[in-house]
Structures are given as C-alpha cells and as structure tokens.
C-alpha cells in the first residue's frame, strides 16, 4: 500500500472563516499538485486560536460556508481535515476537526482533553479518537492536548497505522510536545504527523516546525521553522520520505 499525506502549516486570520477557507484552498491546490491523498490543518485553523470568541465563531458541520472545502475534496479525491469551533449539545462549543471525504460525506472529531483554561470556553468530548481509512491506512485524529495523554492513542492503537495531530505549539512547548509525539510513534508503532500553525495565533507564538515521525520513532522530515509550508510525506515500498514546500 502507498499513501501521500500532508501537514498544512498554515497562518490563520483571526475569526475570519471565509477568508481562512480561501487560504486553505491554496494549500489544498498545492497538495493536489503533489498527488496528496490526505491533508491535515492545525488546531482551529478556520478561526485561529481565539478562545474568547469561540462561541461566537462556532458553526455546524453542515454549514454551507464550508462547502468550498467539501467541493475541493470531491474535485481532487482528497481527504481534508480542518480545525474549527463546532456547535455542541452543551452551552459551550467543541474544539473540533472536521473531515471532508471525496464521496461528499463529513465526519467530526471533537477534542477530548482540554488545555488548562480551555474549559471556560470549550466543552470536552467523551468520544474516542476518530479513525478513518485512507488508501488502506487507518488514521486516528488528535487535537493538541490529546497527544499529551497516553490513553488517547492507546484507545485505538491496535487498529491504526497513523496518528494525525492538529496542533498549536509554541517555542516553549515544542520540546515537550515533540517528545510526546515521538514516543507515541515508537511505543505504538504508528507514523505520527503533526500540523502546527505557521505564525502567532491568539496569544501564542507558534513554533512552526510541523513534523513527521516514523513508527520507529525517527524524525523523518520537519519544516525548518515558522511560515506557510506544506509538509508532504510519501510512503512507498515500505519507507517514508518527505519534502517541505513553501506556500505563498
């Protein structure tokens, strides 16, 4: 089995879902040009990490505002994972990943483990990681703080090949988060893809440095720093290889 996956290290415009969708489409076009099967964007990529306006920005998964992403998924035959605040059954929204599939369907994963302080603005999910199938690879989704809890990946470790993490990681937090992801890759024998923000979002200066670790816990490829980049990882003949492409 072969697969090409990508982390979109993208910059988010604060609170502007429509504008951020247009930015996302630039990355998706670049990914299509490189025959990518699945692309993953950072945590809250469609709004930025704006906790205080999370409830005002929250939308439904079937909102027509999101249709350009659904159309791109169908047009390119690509699975697209974006981050957004999603309306929930509680008074607070979920921090969520929304997955667009080429058949027109959509699936939701809502963040299970919240960072300290997020509980005032978001509701945690009680659901296990969403596992999706892409080209015969089982892929589990995670959002930032999820990756700090071994029980998150452990819940599905026996049934997945890849762990896809949408993140906002600062320079200060990067060494810890990167080690958590590396050790998860090695412990559970899964490939781990981390998509980080390209620039400051909310009150956090992102470190960039989106990365991929192999199931042996080896760092295969990493974006050199901040800025808009597409990290493309290819699996063929039993090996991973990667490249970093700047996106204007």
TrEMBL record:
<protein>
    <submittedName>
        <fullName>Carbon-nitrogen hydrolase family protein</fullName>
    </submittedName>
</protein>
<feature type="domain" description="CN hydrolase">
    <location>
        <begin position="3"/>
        <end position="237"/>
    </location>
</feature>
<dbReference type="InterPro" id="IPR050345">
    <property type="entry name" value="Aliph_Amidase/BUP"/>
</dbReference>
<dbReference type="GO" id="GO:0050126">
    <property type="term" value="F:N-carbamoylputrescine amidase activity"/>
</dbReference>
<dbReference type="InterPro" id="IPR036526">
    <property type="entry name" value="C-N_Hydrolase_sf"/>
</dbReference>
<keyword id="KW-0378">Hydrolase</keyword>
<dbReference type="Pfam" id="PF00795">
    <property type="entry name" value="CN_hydrolase"/>
</dbReference>
<dbReference type="GO" id="GO:0033388">
    <property type="term" value="P:putrescine biosynthetic process from arginine"/>
</dbReference>
<dbReference type="InterPro" id="IPR003010">
    <property type="entry name" value="C-N_Hydrolase"/>
</dbReference>
